Amino acid sequence: MNSEFDSYRLSDEHEALREAVRDLATKEIAPHAADVDEEGRYPTEARDALTRAGFHAVIIPEEYGGQGADELAGCIVIEEVARACASSSLIPAVNGLGMTPILLSASDDVKKQVLPSIASGEAMISYGLSEREAGSDAAAMKTRARRDGDDWIIDGTKCWITNAGESSWYTVMAVTDPEKKANGISAFVVHSDDPGFSVGPKERKLGIKGSPTREIYFEGCRIPGDRIIGAEGTGFKTALRTLDHTRPTIGAQAIGIAQGALDVAIDYVKERKQFGTRLADFQGLQFMIADMAMKVEAARQLVYVAASRAERGESDLGFISSAAKTMASDTAMAVTTDAVQLLGGAGYTRDFPVERMMRDAKITQIYEGTNQIQRMVMARNLLR
Ligand code: COS
Q1: Which cofactor does it need (predicted)?
Q2: Which residue, by CA, sits nearest to atom 21 of ligand 1?
Q3: CATH code given to domain 125-232
């Protein structure tokens, strides 16, 4: 066989990255995961460890002070952190989501204003698309941006903003021309120090309790004219193109959570004895474990393919990125639920991490577009 053909596998660099992140997550993130969840506190240990190692935002190009890693590498980082602590995995995931509109559509000047501060770890960035009355129907947003001399003035409220209050930068979609509906929406970058910007109280959530979710408020918020991302009226397309790239990263988070739960379940059934034998020797439970691992591996492959196709800049990502996110998040919910089942009463208590993983998994079926919206996107792509 001609050796120029590389067989179907991750590169040595991707494998080395996985090993390095897994090592860091095991030593520096996992020990705090239960406490972060219990207290609903921001995972500062994870933030510091990820930033020190440069794993908090690996996809920033080298020319802006980053490492220039590809989108598959970005997914591997998120997956491995999520295996230990889903809340902590939102540090690289949300940095990726917040900066992707900038990477895709912003001028070099905006990139220079924002990206180096994220690359250095001095700042983080969140993404502001949703509103209370514009969730799945994102184009129904009401937040307005108007020109005032050289500046833009933004008014409105965005909600469900992950890591709001921790981030310094926010990419924000706002209506600049209400007549034009989706094509009258523009994207901006707002800094937390901009006058008229503030954040609301933390939402009280089922899971990912270490990652603050808040509303963000714009009251006559004034930003310089050059902080628009791309041309006026292109913001909604940028927002949807962004999700084409970042939905696989939520898939990566989901398979990380699922793998974490599977690992705990495997250890448990090998140790625990009932009826004088290990749980691992009961065929009914063996079949459960086999199915769980099979689903995780299938979802992982779909996520890696979606991320690789996004990295190659393929234009038609709608189907594959929605498929990857949906398959992986449905898998995470099923696998974490089965992990709780395998641990029985113990799995239902906070003495083991699987109940946390089951709660954390749920959000992956909801955010970055519910799985019903993903199926709509897939069907539109298949049937157009
Ligand atoms: N990339 C670039 N442009 C896209 C696109 C994509 N993936 N998908 C659609 N567009 C374009 C369309 O071509 C259309 O442009 P034209 O009018 O010039 O043809 C425009 O964007 C609007 O598209 P569409 O009419 O399909 O928009 P809808 O209002 O019907 O909404 C869905 C489309 C439902 C797919 C979108 O609102 C969505 O993804 N909702 C979920 C939002 C979400 O994920 N929220 C989570 C927030 S992030 S945590």
Answers
A1: FAD
A2: 237
A3: 2.40.110.10
Q: Residue with the nearest Cα to atom 3 of ligand 1?
A: 237
Give the distance (Å) from ligand 1 centre to CA of residue 358: 30
What pTM was computed for the model?
Answer: 0.98
Name the residue of 211, 237, 250 whose CB sits within 8 Å of the most ligand 1 atoms, as the mutation to test its pocket: 237
- CB of 182 closer than 6 angstroms to any ligand 1 atom: yes
Long-range contacts of 233-237 (CB under 8 A, 24+ apart): 233/176, 233/177, 233/180, 233/183, 233/184, 233/185, 233/186, 234/105, 234/186, 234/187, 235/173, 235/174, 235/176, 235/185, 235/186, 235/187, 235/188, 236/138, 236/139, 236/173, 236/182, 236/183, 236/185, 237/182
Pick the CATH number of 236-383 from 1.20.140.10, 1.10.260.40, 1.10.10.350, 1.10.760.10: 1.20.140.10
- Indicate if ligand 1 lies below 6 Å from the C-beta of 29: no
> Which residues, 6+ apart, have CB-to-CB distance to 217 below 8 Å?
157, 197, 198, 199, 200
DSSP β-bridge partners for residue 134: 131
CATH of domain 12-120: 1.10.540.10
Average pLDDT over residues 46-68: 98
Question: Could you confirm whether 45 is annotated as catalytic?
Answer: no
Find the 178 Cα to ligand 1 centroid distance in Å: 16
- pLDDT tens-place string over residues 126-166: 999 999 999 999 999 999 999 999 999 999 999 999 999 99
Question: Ligand 1 centroid vs 237 CA: distance in angstroms?
Answer: 7
Domain boundaries, the chain: 12-120, 125-232, 236-383
Residues in a beta bridge with 222: 153
94-128 per-position pLDDT tens digit: 999 999 999 999 999 999 999 999 999 999 999 99
Residue 139 in contact with ligand 1 by CB distance below 6 A: yes
